[in-house]
Amino acid sequence: MFLGLMACGIAAMRRRSGVGALVWLGIWSAMYGALRMGDAVTAVARMPHWFQVSMQNLDVVNMYFILVVATRAWLELSVGKLRVLLRGLVFAALAIGVAGMVIFLVTGARNKLIPYNSLLAACTLCVLLTVAGVPKLARKFLVVPDSGVLLVGTLVFAIEALYTNVARPLGYRPSTIWDSLGFAAFLVSFAYVALQMVFESEGRLLSIEKELAIAREIQAAILPNGSPEMENLRITAAYRPMTAVAGDFYEFIRIDEHRVGVLVADVSGHGVPAALIAAMLKVAIQSVVACAPDPGEVLRGLNRALYGQPRDQFVTAAYLFLDTQNHKALYSAAGHPPLILSRRGRLERVESNGLVFGVMPEPDYPVHDMQIRSGDRFLLYTDGVIEPENAEGKAFGDGKLEEVLLGMQAGSPSELMDRLLTEIRCWQPPTKTQQDDITLVVVDVR
User: Fold this and answer.
1) Mean per-residue pLDDT for 277-303?
2) Can you tell me the distance from the alpha carbon of 412 to that of 234, in angstroms, rounded to the nearest whole number?
3) Which of 18, 334, 408, 446 pairs with 33 at a CA distance of 20 to 30 A?
4) What's 151-211 look like in SS3?
5) DSSP secondary structure string for all residues of 317-359
6) Burial of 237 (0-12, 13-18, 19+ CB in 10 A)
7) Beta strands, E only, 231-284
């Protein structure tokens, strides 16, 4: 029982995938210990009556359901057809256990279905011993680092268990010391293999975490180091990834102190696959720098670079070109949320959308032409701004976004961003993590 609780405690402290075998082994060991404790009749006899009755009931539960737990522990080490077979044996053992408990509760008969349970246990042990004992089968159906150690422990336990399960129905009562020693040998071998699996899993996770740290550094390197310094523009950007690496991307194409292009893109999905597509956008930007004053051509060039990539990775984008010398702005988008223009206390949603990137080789991206003046404010953003939901399932939405924008018209771009990010965090329940990548770019015309 102590070893079982210790195994479950180790699994709880790890709190990672790959500890299932350790959890089920711990429960199995604890149930076996409870059976041995129930066999200590002289000790139980000194206990109160309610305790003796409870131990008897627990003994019946353990006898019927220990096979379910044991088979479930083996299920964590198996793959392929063996896993399917073990699932069937788990359901069979569970059916016998439930039926046996019903009979016990109705009639008081403790051992009515124990022979069937013992027969199923014997069949299960034969299958497992065969798989563990044949190297070819072990490599094919078991995911253990060292099947030799497991084989030795299983063999000792199987010989003892087969003898016990055959002898008891025939009226013989073998000494429990052999049962305990056989299970101890198996427990050590199974725990050794389970811990090996846990450590190997943690090694892989550490390796993945290191690679993610490198990916995060690379992604940080492909994003702008800061906002471009412009004569009549004040530009501020905020980037809040949902995971270590993200699919949001933004870039500035500065031509001179009067002209600049602002690109914001959002790759569907999250994590490394989305981040790789975002990195491709960084490379593709270099091919469209020459046509920066033409938003339609910029988006077509990026689409050509991404066309033919995996179709399950969609990319939306918005591109705004500003020319303060000629007081002009050009805007186009590819399936992206609209640009928001704040002017004289009013908000205007500018939509000029074509298809998302990668769907067609040469789509058309219409361009919206605007006159700009001092005091104008432009907001480009990804859908991670408007999609977060509160405890009632209501999205932050365009309405809440516009409410924050109108309330912060007198604030600087950085103050607006801080307020907007704060409102988004407050909108979501405290226990809920960020639901999507968030990117914001605010441009003020001075």
Assistant:
1) 90
2) 9
3) 18
4) HHHHHHHHHHHHHHHHHHHHCCCCCHHHHHHHHHHHHHHHHHHHHHHHHHHHHHHHHHHHH
5) EEEEEEETTTTEEEEEEESPPPEEEEETTEEEEE--EEPPBTS
6) buried
7) 233-240, 248-254, 259-267
pLDDT by residue (tens digit) across 57-100? 777 888 888 889 888 888 888 888 888 999 999 999 999 989 98
The token pair that represents 247 in the structure block: 């699919």
Residues comprising the chain, all counted:
446
pLDDT digits (tens, 9 = 90+) for 391-446: 888 999 998 999 999 989 888 888 999 999 999 988 988 877 777 889 999 999 98
Q: Which two tokens stand for residue 165?
A: 């399960």
- What's the pLDDT score for residue 258? 92
Q: What single DSSP character describes residue 291?
A: G
Domain boundary among 210, 233, 266: 210
Give me the pLDDT at residue 340, please.
Answer: 95
Do 205 and 306 reside in the same domain of the chain?
Answer: no
CATH of the domain at 441: 3.60.40.10
Looking at the 3D structure of the chain, how many domains does it have?
2
pLDDT at 257 over 80: yes
Q: Which value, to the nearest 10 degrees, does the dihedral of the CA atoms of residues 381, 355, 285, 441 take?
A: -10
| 200 plus 227 within the same structural domain | no
Let me know if residue 216 belongs to a domain: no
Domain-ending residue, one of 175, 210, 245: 210
